[in-house]
Amino acid sequence: AGPFLSVRDLSVEFSTEDGIVHAVDGLSFDLEKGTTLGIVGESGSGKSVTNLTILGLHDPDHTKIGGEIWLEDRELLGADRATMEKLRGNRIAMIFQDPLTALSPFHTIGRQIGEVYRKHRGASKKESRERAIEMLSRVGIPQPATRVDHYPHEFSGGMRQRAMIAMALVCDPDLVIADEPTTALDVTVQAQILDLLKELQQQSGTAIILITHDLGVVANTADDVLVMYAGRAVERGTVREVLREPRHPYTWGLLSSMPRLTSSVDVPLEPVRGTPPSLLNPPPGCPFHPRCDYPELAGPELCRTQRPELSPGTGHSDACYLTLRQKTDIRAQIKDQV
Ligand code: SF4
Ligand code: MG
Predict the structure, then answer these.
(1) How many other CB atoms are there within 10 angstroms of residue 73's CB atom?
(2) What mean pLDDT, rounded, does the chain reach?
(3) pLDDT exceeds 50 at position 261
(4) Residues 313-332: what's their mean pLDDT?
(5) Bridge-based pairing state of the strands 317-318 and 74-75
(6) Structure confidence at residue 157 (pLDDT)
(7) Residue 314 CA, ligand 1 centroid: distance in Å
(8) Is 12 in the pocket of ligand 1 (CB under 6 A)?
(9) Which of 35-39, 62-66, 271-275 has the least mean pLDDT?
(10) Which of 273, 294, 306, 327 to probe ligand 1 with, by most ligand atoms within 8 A of CB?
(11) What's the rounded Cα separation, in Å, for the pair 219 and 72?
């Protein structure tokens, strides 16, 4: 059998009034059950679009999609609306940054969690309510049998996030996509929520895609990392590989803007200068070249005109023309200067 989830050469373009946005370009990755893939990048790097596409939530009238997305033996991009609707909430679930986009203010938490269970499992009202209480208890909400009848506004921010996770997990999905699930929360609650996701993963073998701009979140939660820049994957590897031996100049920049990591990682202490490119008109060659300090070393003509690619397969790889030796030397030099 192949990987549990396999994204192959995915491209996503939408037409806007200003032209065509190349949101995702040539993206490939695999995800196994029971593991977490962190997708990291600045806003506009294509990470959220990728996941909306996996969920089939893109607007088909304005979106052009290429490539393939395989969930076990089912190809999702060719699936019809009804099939995707059946998969969403049941086998694939989504956790959003803002629980209020997922929770309606007009219905009790218990009814909303129960509704998902009823829809996909054909459970009775009573069963659904019991399941909602069980889920609230699993995500650590105190007095779940009372809380089940409360409305979202009666919950704190952290509890709403937990309730949303309870709703996402009510049908024991095989794949959970969490898009910046903790960004709006304070650090303590953030850590609790990430621990909770890990715990639930250990219990049920869920595969998780964790989308974030924060490499610190990935360091503590993910098994593998994909760094995205301007709609493309620029580095891929295990968390250990990418954090200990980051190879792409953009990853160096991302790491250096993380003060809690830089003490153990020898990277330039400069955040990435400049701004992400417009996806209406992405730069030719290496998409990072306008912000990169090293084209002279790698070959400026190459960097400006030819697109570097990740190696196929699954090992640690980055899309940059610098040799491994050059990367090691640059990182050593920078370390000496500090
Ligand atoms: Fe920089 Fe060139 Fe490497 Fe791109 S390919 S990151 S421009 S050195
Ligand atoms: Mg986003």
Answers:
(1) 7
(2) 87
(3) no
(4) 92
(5) unpaired
(6) 85
(7) 21
(8) no
(9) 271-275
(10) 294
(11) 27
Quick: pLDDT tens for 151-180.
Answer: 999 999 889 988 998 999 899 899 999 888
| Per-residue pLDDT tens over the stretch 53-101 | 888 877 778 889 999 999 999 999 989 889 988 888 789 988 877 777 7
> Which amino acid is present at 309?
E
Q: Give the DSSP H or E segment for 156.
A: none
Residue 158 beta carbon below 6 angstroms from any ligand 1 atom:
no
pTM as predicted: 0.89
Closest CA to 233 of 298, 116, 297, 318: 318
In testing the pocket of ligand 1, which one of 307, 321, 324, 330 has its CB within 8 Å of the most ligand atoms?
321
Cα R_g (the chain), whole angstroms:
21
Residue 205 dihedral angles phi and psi, to the nearest 5°: 65, 25
Closest CA to 238 of 320, 315, 313: 315
Q: Is the CB of 234 under 6 A from ligand 1?
A: no
Q: Which amino acid is at 154?
A: E
pLDDT score at 222: 94
Tokens of 109: 């938490």
Q: Is the CB of 292 under 6 A from ligand 1?
A: yes
Q: How confident is the model at residue 133 (pLDDT cuts 50, 70, 90)?
A: very high
Ligand 1: does its nearest atom lie under 6 Å from the Cβ of 319? no
- In whole angstroms, give the CA distance from residue 125 to residue 149: 14
How far is residue 231's CA from residue 234's CA, in Å, rounded to a whole number?
Answer: 9
User: Which pLDDT score is estimated for 89?
Assistant: 79
d(CA 216, CA 209): 15
What's phi and psi for 150, nearest 5 deg? -90, 160
Tell me the ligand closest to 213's alpha carbon. 2
